[in-house]
Fold:
Amino acid sequence: MKAAQQIPRNALAWIILCQVLLLAPHGLRVPAWLLLLYLAAFGWRVQLYRNRLPAPTRWLKLVLIGAAMAGIGWSYGSLIGLEPTVALLLAAYALKLVESVSRKDAYVLIFLGFFLLITEFLFSQDLLIVVYASFVAWLLTAALVALHRTGEGFELAPLRVAGVMLAQAFPLMLVLFFLFPRIGPLWNVPIRAHAAQTGMSDFLRPGDVARLTQSTEVAFRARFAGEVPQARDLYWRGLVMSVLEDDTWRSLRFFEAPPAQRRPAPVEAVGAVLDYSVIIEPTQQHWLYALRYAEPQESGVMALADYTLYSPATLESERRYSVRSWPGAAIGLELDTWRRRLETRLPEGENPRALALARQLRAAADDDEAFIARVLALFREQPFRYTLQPPLLGDDPVDDFLFGTRAGFCEHYANAFAVLMRAAGVPARIVAGYQGGEINPMNGTVIVHQFDAHAWNEVWLEGQGWMRVDPTAAVSPARVEFGLETAVQGEGSFLAGSPLSPLRYRAVSWVNTLRLRYDALTYRWQSWVVGFDSERQVELLGKWFGRIDAKRFVAVLLGSFGVVLAAVALALLVRAGPRRDPLLRAWARLRARLVRAGVPVHAGDSPATVLARAQQRYPAAAADLGVLAEEFTALLYRPVGSGDLRRLQQRLRRLRLSSQ
Amino acid sequence: MWFLAEGAGLPALREHLRARFQRWLVRRIPPARSVTLDQRRIFIFPSRVGFFFFACLLVMLVAAINYENNMSYALTFLLATLFVIAVLHSYANLSGLTLRALRAGEGFPRQLVPFSIGLACATRRGHHALWLGFEDDPEAVAVSVMPERGATVTLYREAGERGPFRPGRLRVESRYPLGLLRCWTWVDLDLVGLAYPRPLPYPEPLGSGAGQPRGRPARRPGEDEFFGLRDYRAGDRLRQVYWKGLARGQTLQSKQYAAGAASLDWLDWDAFPGIARERRLSFLCQQCLDLHRRGRRFGLRLPGNQLAAGAGDGQRDRVLRALGNFAPPPEAER
Structure:
């Protein structure tokens, strides 16, 4: 059927609005010139509509597409990966708008819009983003409706129709969402190669952790099955760094270890048990954080030789994992020669004063434990300062730090401590992770922010294995007891770069309550919706339906669809049936009343005839009946106002049919 | 089997299926002057855009699976279920629509003849973006029927050869609200249009008094006697307008000419003996048009039918209708 081929103006307005809203969240991610391209495309489209500019010719289109691709390749360095792909989609979306004339193009624009919403979800599934995306999806559906309406002027009806339809589809969507089997990826997909990695890296240079502490972002949230341990005991181990090269600590690569050393040595799990689950924000990296000694409770999480947890898949979106920890268990009781050599190795010829000091202190101490206590006492007694703004260090950073500046952040202390230990032949290494966390009273989760990033040490002692030592605690006990904010209170450097973060206004009660409520909501959202995976699915469906088999699956699916569709059909077809004319309704009621009162009424009688008969039967009411007959006859043949009806109703109420 | 028989190729199969479909359609939606659409009469199927949408959904689902992204799953499922919900909405948009045959048009062969169809809405929702057209006619007219308000649609169909003709079934189609589904019906409103004979130049009629009034020389219209002036009416010919009066500042007036009461003419079937029926009717048709143009009074004599004399547009239409509908008794066919 040949339709009017042009996009109706209303629909075009909706589409352009959607396009702006779709671009907005991507705006910060794409190169700035892409935004200019959009502006140009909108301008051209409007001028095209007003016949001020011609439609682009075929070769111009080709040139524009080529230019956009070249621009994206130039901006990102490649066309492969999620970000360039999204940028390419956005560029195509902008150019498509210019050449869109027919309805067919409008469909492409709208469906592409839905696809762009999905790309937005690949970057973030935050609650606010999802609310925003739902709104845009509503507008896109409204645009689709507007495309099929024939009205000329601007109207909001498409919004209403789209809203009703989406609301009706929503329960069915939930059914599919929970029932659809979560299968793994079908093939490898372009990853977010261009996204910045967040959180810890597997290198640790002085200043790295301090930089992290400027971030107010959440690193992960943990929920304990039982009581939450004290903040000072929450040492979330992420990475263990055993190699010191070029003033940089790094973790041991998997293949650098001899094959026998690649798996964790068995640990005798004794003492108190902590069960908890963690939802970690996307980091684009692989390590997971847990309290020691941690055993992962699910597949897809590996335990490494240094008792850290590792995800073989890059953490591109929120990830939930369950862990069981035994804080009292000793780890690494046996130290093999290869590892002893690795964990005591120091670069040649650096930090001579520190090395001399270490040897001297060790010689004065009875054993390794006494030596450790002596070094910590040194940190405590000498005028060491804990600061987020440490001075720069020279070529021998540990010497400079220990004998010069004496001001630093946790990684300075951990670095100096590890170097001192190794210099005395005590196996030592740095652990990077987070320390502490904020307990949300709304739901009992522990929120760990990036500014909780911390570095501490592990020292190997005969008969005790790897022991945790936190030299920062010796310098600034407040850091471990109360967190960073208290520790650097005097300095005013806490979150100096984020003046608007609600975290800075924790003292303002309602801001804090609001923030914690939202965080609790985010946790629920992440654990139930975003983190809904095959394991959760099996758990949930098992709880709801007992046994999970195909027959039940299909029955639930068909049953729920049947119920919802029947309800919608009822609303659409039955309730919205013909609306009866109030005048005819009034007449039908009076007619029924007359029939009950014994007035003979035949099919096809007019109101005047029936009322005349009623007058004969009830002479006492003859006058009233006469007026009614006149009124009905008049109203049947002229437009009825609301006043007319009111008057008629009053008259009907006053009518008394008595035999005498 | 029948379709494997000699000579029965694909076209034959298609023809056979078409015929079967037509018979089925007649049984399912029989001709009626007024039809209210319900589930017996409404067909629904995804449109081409619907299939395209479905393909898009598959791509989105693959993206959701590969990125294991729950919100992508949610959006994909929301759109998929929207599609399902749209089936009901598309159906509801046509359901309850009442179509009524209002007027079937008349015209000369190969002329476009208007057919008027009344649309009435009995629901509170209204019927949006309906496309009406006759079968195998690519032209369609869009109309929306608002609640408790009707609409009238006029469709044009080319008239065939002389005689009554049916414009064919009416196709009522809508893709509202999302364009993903095509919801349509074929109704037969029992509309019968009429094609007049094709006017043909006629030879001098035989015998008494047909084409020319007896005893008077033929006159050209302009030579009729001046009768008087009256106020201009829309449709008066320009040469009739009394321009001089207008120039003098009077209202616009037309000059009236008396056609002469005596100039009664008869269009007579028997005036053209030995000529084939359709040709004869064509001659009569042309005669009728000529006489009407000259403003004469005329009547019509056909075998088994006689129209009293009259003048003006009404008389012309009556005569043309009689000619168009003419179906002679067998003995007149000579």
Residues 9-149 of chain A form one domain.
